[in-house]
Amino acid sequence: MSRTTPETAAVTETPSSSAAPAHDPSAPESGSLGHGLKQRHLSMIALGGVIGAGLFVGSGAGIAAAGPSIVIAYAVSGLLVMLVMRMLGEMSAAHPSSGSFSSHAGRAIGPWAGFTSGWAFWVMLSTAVGLEGIGAAKIVTGWLPGTPEWMWVALFMAVFTGTNLAAVKNFGEFEFWFAALKVVAIVAFLALGVLAVAGLLPGSDGADPAGLSEIMPGGVHGLIIGLLASVFAYGGIESVTVAAAESEDPVRGVASAVRTAMWRIGLFYIGSMAVIVLLVPWNSPALVEKGPYVAALDTLGIPGAGQIMNVVVLVALLSAMNANTYTASRVAFSLVRRGQGPKALGRVTGGVPRAAVLASSAFGFLCVLLSYWRPDDVFAWLLNMIGAVILVIWLFVAVSQLVLRRRLEREEPARLTVRMWAFPWLTWVATAGILTIFVLMLLEPGTRVQVLSTGALTLVLAVTGYVSQRRGGRTAA
Fold first, then answer.
1. pTM of the predicted model over 0.85
2. What is the pLDDT of residues 246-297, one digit of tens each?
C-alpha cells in the first residue's frame, strides 16, 4: 500500500504543467490551489518584484558608507543573487511547488530542513507585512496630518487580506499594476539620469567628477557595510517561484523569470546606483536625509521630487505587503500539506488557502501592535530575529540544489529544463559567498546581534523539525 510521505507530498501538492487539467485552470478542484495567474502576471511580478522600498530608501546609508564603491557592492551581491535564483529556478522548474525552496529542502535534505526554512521564511514575511504597513502609513499621515497612523495600517492590512482571500487572479492583477508603476518610475529615473550624466538634460552639468575622486572613501570597511546593505535590498526576489506554482504554465513561468533575472538586477539596481553616485556627491547629507533618488532628482531640478518619490515608495510598500501576504500564506499551506504545521491552515476554499492568509495577516498585525506596545524590547528582538533569515534561506537553496541536481541527472534528466551554470563549481562559489556574508555580519557590531538572533530562531526551528521528523518516522514504522 502506498503512502504519502512529507517528501512526496512536496512533489504532489501542486500539479506541474504537464499534469494540468483540461478545464479552466482558474477553477481549481476542491482542496487544491488555483492556477489563475497568467503569464503576463508572472512576467510583471518577476520584473517588478526586484524593485522594493529598500532600493528607494535604504540604499542611501549604503552609499554614505561605501561612496562610489556602492556600485561594486551591488554588483557583487547582485551576482550572488543571480546564482541563487538560477539554483532555485532549476529546482522549481523541475518540481513546481507553492513551497518553493522549502519543498526542495525537504526533498533534498530531509523534512526538518523544509520545516526550518519554511517557517523561518513565514515569520520573516509576516513580520515584514507589518513593517511595510507602518512605513506606508507614515507616508500617508505626512500627506494627511492629524489622521491616526494605526488607522492607515489597519486599512492597508484589511485591503490586502481581502485581496488575498479572493481568487489568486486578484492578487495577480494588483501585483501586475503595482509592478508596472514601479518599473515605469525606475525606467524614467534611469532615462533622466543618463541624460543628465551625459549633459544632455536642460539645466544639468553632467556627471560630478568631484564625487568620483575617490572610489572607496570608506575603505574596505565602508565597502563591507555597503555590501551588507545591498544584500538585504534583494530580499523577496525569490517569491516569483512561489507564485509560478499557481500559474497556467509553472515551468515556463519559472524559466522565464530566472533567465531574465540578470538584466533586471543589472539595470534596476546596479544601473541606479551608478547614476546616483555620478550625480550626487557620496558625502551629501541628502542621500540619507531625503533618500538617494530624491537627492538625485533634486540635483536635476525636478519640481516636487520628494512627493514624486513618496508616491513611488508608497506603491513599493503596498506591493510588498500584497506579495508578502500571498507568499507567506502559500509557504504555510505547503508546510501544512507536508504534515509540518497546524492542519487548519491547510484548508482550501475556491483555490485559496484562506486560513493561511488570515494567520499570516494576523501575525503581521500583531507585529504592528508590538511596535506600539513594546518598541524597545519585544519588537526590537523580533526585528533582529528575522535580520539574517534570507541568508539562511539562500544557504538551504544552495545545499538543496547540490543534492537534487545529481538526483535529477540520475533519475529524471528530462526535468532539467533550467540548468545551473557551471555546476557544481558556481554552486560552491555561491555557498562560499553566503558563508562569507555571515562572517562579515558577525564581525560588524551593528549586524552581529542579527546573526545571533536569527541563528537562535533557526536552531529552535531545526530542533523542532527534527524531533517532529523522528516522531513521524516512528509512527509510520
1. yes
2. 777 778 878 877 777 778 788 888 899 999 988 888 888 988 888 888 888 8
Give 21's pLDDT tier (boundaries 50, 70, 90).
very low
Q: What is the CATH number of the domain that holds 437?
A: 1.20.1740.10
Cα(360)–Cα(321) distance, integer angstroms? 11
Q: Which strand (E) or helix (H) includes residue 121?
A: helix 111-143
Q: Structurally, how many domains does the chain consist of?
A: 1
Provide mean pLDDT across the span 89-108.
Answer: 90
Distance CA 349, CA 29 (A): 10
CA distance 353 to 346: 6
Task: Give a yes or no: residue 13 inside a domain.
Answer: no
Q: State the CB neighbour count (10 A cutoff) for residue 185.
A: 20
- What are the φ and ψ backbone dihedral angles of 431, each rounded to 5 degrees? -60, -45
Domain extent for 461: 46-476
Q: Which whole number is the average pLDDT over 75-99?
A: 90
413 inside domain: yes
Q: Quick one: average pLDDT of 294-318?
A: 86
On whether residue 89 sits in a domain, the answer given is yes
Q: Tell me, letter by letter, the H, E, C secondary structure of the chain.
A: CCCCCHHHHHHHCCCCHHHCCCCCCCCCCCCCCCCCECHHHHHHHHHHCCCCHHHHHHHHHHHHHHHHHHHHHHHHHHHHHHHHHHHHHHHHHHCCCCCCHHHHHHHHCCHHHHHHHHHHHHHHHHHHHHHHHHHHHHHHHHHCCCCCHHHHHHHHHHHHHHHHHCCHHHHHHHHHHHHHHHHHHHHHHHHHHHHHHCCCCCCCCCCCHHHHCCCCCCHHHHHHHHHHHHHHHCCCCCHHHHHHHHECCHHHHHHHHHHCHHHHHHHHHHHHHHHHHHHCCCCCCHHHHCCHHHHHHHHCCCCCHHHHHHHHHHHHHHHHHHHHHHHHHHHHHHHHHCCCCCHHHHCCECCECHHHHHHHHHHHHHHHHHHHHCCCCHHHHHHHHCCCHHHHHHHHHHHHHHHHHHHHHHHCHHHCCCCCCCCCHHHHHHHHHHHHHHHHHHHCHHHHHHHHHHHHHHHHHHHHHHHHHHHHHHHHC
**Domain-located, residue 142:** yes
